[in-house]
Specification:
Low-confidence stretches: 22-39
Shape: globular
Protein name: Serine protease
Structural class: mainly beta
Distance between the termini: 38 Å
Largest sheet: 6 strands, antiparallel, barrel
Oligomer: single chain
Organism: Hemibagrus wyckioides
Pfam family, one: Trypsin_2
Order of helices and strands: EHEHEEEEEHEEEEEHEEEE
Keywords: Signal
Length: 266
């Protein structure tokens, strides 16, 4: 069978971002909850403006944006994906994909999410959404650590990184062909939904389009999901979502980049 390979489209405009920032963590099932009323462009603008005058991060909670303080005791789940948001010079916002907090101030994502030349002259926000609050950072993309062969990159958070904790750096595992896996993708209503599947053996068509450090799963993500972390059933991080293989019948398989052997460029 012949499969076509495509990267998950990272270019989503502001209305997509508005949905993303109302994310709840759900299993793959319908959600009837309406979007919260604060999903407005002026909220993102205010976060951007406030981060110009503080090291950050800032917190949006209960209708207010305030600078993070240690006594807030806000913690982020280690499996929580973050959203990479770009504010271009003309004032437009765009979501360029997902990532995860690896540790030491670094967010791990797919390289193609952050490699566009104009990102280096834009304002980059990285948002960690929860059900109760959103933690928003500025990020430094001037000198990202990258691995072009694996399509991986580290992006540096600016400011206090206590809320994300130690990150996933001590929960890395090698890929096992018998692994059951799960990762989070974005539903049309903006919520995160949990996708569960297994490691698959790629056919010859897939192998011709894969890097040597990539693996295939029985489930794929949606547009804008590049950079999402994938976990085995022991809750260990084994890869980052980079692309999708699509059969002419419509069948889709996710393709992930392994991360177990890239610690030399942390």
């Amino acid at each position: 069978m012949v499969f076509t390979c495509s990267y998950c489209n990272p270019n989503m405009m502001f209305m997509d971002i508005l949905n993303l920032l109302g994310i709840l963590f759900l299993d793959a099932q319908p959600n009837n909850r309406s979007d919260p009323p604060w999903l407005r462009e002026d909220i993102i603008e205010k976060c951007t403006d406030q981060l110009e005058s503080t090291n950050g991060p800032v917190v949006y909670r209960n209708g207010e944006i305030v600078e993070y303080e240690d006594n807030m005791e806000l913690l982020i789940s280690q499996e929580t994906p973050c959203i990479i948001i770009t504010k271009f010079n003309e004032g437009n916002f765009s979501s360029h994909g997902l990532g995860c907090y690896y540790g030491n101030g670094n967010v791990l994502t797919a390289l193609h999410v952050v490699k566009e030349p104009n990102l280096k002259t834009s304002k980059i926000l990285i948002a960690f959404p929860t059900e109760d609050f959103i933690l928003v950072y500025r990020a430094d993309l001037k000198f990202p650590n990258t691995d072009t062969k694996r399509d991986l990159a580290f992006v540096k958070l600016l400011g206090n990184t206590h809320p994300p904790g130690d990150g996933l750096q001590n929960k890395i595992a090698e890929v096992n062909k018998n692994d059951r896996i799960y990762f989070y993708t974005r539903a049309p209503n903006g919520n995160f939904q949990k996708q569960e599947g297994k490691i698959c053996r790629p056919n010859s068509s897939m192998r011709q389009q894969m890097g040597e450090n990539e693996f295939v799963t029985s489930v794929a993500g949606n547009e804008g999901d590049s950079g999402s972390p994938v976990f085995n059933d022991k809750h260990e991080l084994i890869g980052i979502y980079v692309k999708v293989f699509t059969h002419h019948s419509g069948l889709e398989y996710g393709c992930f980049s392994e991360i177990s052997n890239f610690l030399q460029w942390v």
